[in-house]
Amino acid sequence: MQAGFTCLESGFVRSKNSINVAVKNLIDFCISSALFTLVGFSLMFGESYFGIIGKIQFYDMNSKPMQEIAFFIFQLMFAGTAATIISGAVAERMKFSGYIIITTAMSVIIYPICGHWIWNNNPEGFGQGWLAHMGFIDFAGSTVVHSVAGWCALAAIIITGPRMGRFGSEARPLSGHNLPMAVLGVFLLWFGWFGFNGGSTLAMNAKVPMIIVNTTLAGATGGIAAIILSWYFFRIPRVEHLVNGVVAGLVAICAGCNLFGEFAGLIVGFVAGMLCILSMRLLEKLRIDDVIGAVPAHLVAGAWGTVAVALFAPIESFGVTTSRVDQLIIQATGIAAVGAYSFTILFVLIIAINKYFPFRVSKDSERIGLNISEHGASTSLLDLIGQMDLQARTGDFSQPVTIEPETESGHIATFYNTVLEKVHLESAKRQKAMDELYLLANYDALTNLVNRRYFYDIADKALVRAKRLRDPLAILFLDLDGFKQVNDFYGHEAGDELLVQVAQRCLTNVRQSDLVGRIGGDEFCILLENISQKNDCVGVAKKIIEAIAQKFELSPGNANIGVSVGIAIFDPKKDQDITCDNLITMADKAMYKIKSKGKGNYAIYSK
Q: What's domain 452-604's architecture?
């Protein structure tokens, strides 16, 4: 059964938490075995104090007969089963150390005490526990084992709270990573239940076959009822519903499997399966996050199975009473007493410890998974998911993920890297197209100088900056003299060649920080920032006039042209209201002024 719970719970959680859940199933068996031997067994089966608790004493194996040691080992397995049920309910968000505390409390002060109330009998078979003395019947642990564990699980998950993303506006499905393993787990549990229930006779007698029949039938009809309701509510047969329905049927039959006929076994299992699915839906509406459905399958089904004894068992088997109503009251009293004690003790304990030692892991630990955060354990698939998650959070997809050959994650990584490569290629094409569009939108295709629109935009920002820093700024407006004649005489191709050479000579005679743009046709503009005095821009104008006046060597032949330059200067002391368009217009006017006076020279705009 411990192996079954390990498979079932590990399969029902996400892969990043599967190792943590499996290890919890192992450690709780280790802890419960040790503590039940040292303390729990005597508390449960020792000499009774007022029917409430047993006398604590060391259980000396050497002095005990074989039958008593066999009984001890059998009860030790029950204690381990009760402890392990809680691990699945609190999976994916409880600290490993916190779970150890819960297992310790379960093994010492909860399960043995409740077990003493119901299962502690004297050598003659008369009940010494107060519930047993009252006539409470629980043959194989519907209440002693399963309801006790279910109540403790309920207390733990209420305090711990739901997993991140389980409920709320951003809720998403949190599905188990290996449902076939969970199905294997329920088969292992089912087989183990034959020993769980059949062994409770403490002898291989004539009752054992019928007990195993009832156990089989209840598990089967529990699964059938669950799958019917799953189809009704969700229109699909959900795996977790079928698994929990089977478990619920097996849990419910424990209390009276030695007393029921086969038809009662069928009914008890069927009702348990229905109650399990209905209570799973109720927990979801209440936003109580039970990962594996421990509360519906063990608490609810265990309570129903305990009540079913009063409804279906032969009246002559009751012992203390001869009325089904009276026996129902006794059964209900036991359910309530065990529930109140189990839930309250663990709830108060967790609340008290949680103030100083939080039971829940941090958000980061929950996000990366308890396999890594709690145990430093990982798998190739988790490593791959971690790499992909890092890329998603940082936005850096420049490097491929690491591939582990000959694994399922390795195949995924290979396809992922192929997708990344395709994305990089498409991104490069898109970026190239964007760069080309940027050049077309902002630069002159012939001279590679900035175009009119982009020059105006940069100059406008430069003027704003100059006003804020109170620095002078100048714009030179250039118009070529004689360009039309060269263009007409040699052709447009030669004219284009001439414009390219003019652009290069302009760039050669300005600073790197200065901006040269082609405004249109044979007109150019130059933006000069951080000029200290008027002579700075005059010097630039003279150098350009001199450079343009030099002979141009074109493919068809040589050509000589000139340039007229208009200069507009921004004075931060006087011109705070001036705009970029005003400055360019002023430079243009100055250029036409000098062009009308003979060309090949410069003029500074003034009113």
A: 2-Layer Sandwich (3.30)
